[in-house]
Amino acid sequence: MHFQKITSGTIKKFLIEHNTYLILLLLVVFSSILTSDFLSVMNIRNIFLQQAGPICIAIGMLFVILTGGIDLAVGSYMAFGVSMMGVLFVNNQLPMGLSIVITLVLGMMLGMVTGVFVAYFNMQGFIASLAMMTVGRGISFVLTNGVPIPIPLNTLDKLVAKSAGYPIFFILIGIVALFLFIQVFTTYGRLVIACGSNRNAVELAGIRSRRYIASVYAVSALLSVFAGLVAAARVSTASPSLGAGLELNAIAACAIGGASLSGGVGSVLKTVVGVLVLALIGNVMNLMSVPPYPQDIIKGVIIVLAVLLQLATNRTTRSV
Question: Where are the domains of the chain?
Answer without folding.
Answer: 41-243
